[in-house]
Design a protein that fits this description.
With 326 residues, the protein is of the alpha+beta class. Helix content is 34%, strand content 23%. It is built from 8 helices and 15 strands. It has helices spanning 33-46, 152-158, 165-176, 178-183, 228-245, 253-285, 288-300, 303-311; strands at 3-8, 11-16, 59-62, 67-70, 76-79, 83-84, 107-115, 123-129, 132-138, 144-151, 188-196, 202-203, 207-208, 211-213, 219-220. A 7-stranded mixed beta sheet has the order 2-1-8-9-10-7-11, sandwiched between helices. A 3-stranded antiparallel beta sheet has the order 3-4-5, with no helix packed on it. Helix 5 (228-245) packs antiparallel against helix 6 (253-285). The longest helix is centred in the C-terminal third of the chain and has 33 residues, at 253-285. It is globular.
Length: 326
């Protein structure tokens, strides 16, 4: 992805994506989750992880030393260390507001893949439309992915009785973003829309009650910056660094707590600014007056898009050195 853009109303503004300084290449590349997740799973198995599928954790119980995890079908696992790494829309006791009542301001997330879309392969545009925001990117096999968030209030207004929610969202985006409408004019949707939510952006506890958290369980940025999977993998890297360093002393409660503090400090130092920047971008672009100004400025100053992409974390990498075992 060498260019970043913004599609809003009749506006189509494009600028350079900030390059990354390092040994892994200057720019990122989009890859479908069904491919990335499988690659990670296979790598974990090669490294010695034991896979339990298609189980899921239904309950966790703290023991005097470690945890008991119920994974369904009358099966339990015992664990010395527990890491919560589930998405924020999955119900779990360690995530806040998972059972909160619905609000009109809730953001609902949608995603779909399209074949035959006319989007430059190196461009990642931000979509700005009333009541929400989104993004597009060309990934593997030439398909284009469209992801967006829309308030429950806006979804109810634009949805007709006979329309499915995803179709209503797509129609709303097409009417509001000429760039998106042009890119998808001759495209066909692949499979069906995915939906989840409401999302709960914000900073949570990276370590609490003896449990470590990674990805959205530790904190979630507004998807406007498209950093969800990056933050998940990077936070897991920071956590693994601390766990490897202290692996021979984690049975000691004080050592476990110190490991949790070290991980929490790394997490906040690397992600807190990104989450706050994402919130600022999202709230600015979802308010009509501030959105109008924000969309106008990149037309006159394209470098502003490059600067904002940098604030979102697109150039931020984790250290590559792994500390020696304690």
């Amino acid at each position: 992805m060498r260019r970043v853009g913004i599609f809003a109303g009749e506006t189509v503004s494009v600028a350079s994506m900030p390059a990354v300084g390092g040994s892994f290449g200057k720019w990122g590349q989009a890859l479908g989750r069904e491919h990335l997740d499988l690659l990670l799973l296979e790598a974990a198995a090669r490294a010695g992880a034991e896979l339990w599928q298609p189980y899921r954790v239904t309950r966790v119980e703290p023991l005097r030393h470690g945890w008991r995890c119920e994974i369904g079908k009358g099966t339990s696992l015992l664990a010395d260390t527990l890491v919560a790494a589930n998405g924020s829309w999955e119900k779990s006791p360690w995530l806040p507001d998972c059972d909160a009542p619905h609000r009109e301001s809730d953001l609902i997330a949608f995603k779909a893949h399209f074949d035959g879309a006319d989007l430059a392969p190196d461009l990642m545009p931000l979509l700005v439309f009333p009541g929400g925001y989104g993004g597009m990117v060309r990934s593997d096999h030439g398909r284009v992915s469209l992801s967006c968030c829309i308030t429950r209030r806006t979804l109810d207004r634009c949805r007709k009785d006979e329309e499915r929610a995803g179709d209503a969202v797509l129609g709303h985006i097409a009417r509001s973003c000429k760039g998106a409408a042009d890119a998808l004019a001759g495209a066909e949707i692949r499979e069906s829309w995915l939906a989840a939510g409401p999302i709960r952006p914000g900073i949570r506890a990276a370590f609490a009650d003896g449990m470590f958290r990674a990805g959205n369980a530790a904190g979630e940025a507004h998807p406007i910056i498209a950093e969800g999977i990056t933050m998940a993998t990077q936070s897991a890297w920071f956590l693994c660094r601390e766990l490897i360093s202290a692996q021979d002393s984690l049975a000691n409660p004080s050592a476990l707590a110190e490991t949790g503090r070290a991980y929490s400090a790394s997490w906040r130092g690397h992600f807190a600014g990104r989450i706050r920047a994402a919130a600022a971008f999202a709230h600015t672009l979802m308010r009509p007056r501030s959105a109008a100004l924000a969309v106008t400025l990149p037309k006159r100053f394209p470098a502003l898009l490059t600067f904002c992409a940098g604030l979102s974390g697109k150039t931020k990498q984790v250290p590559v050195a792994i500390p020696p075992r304690a």
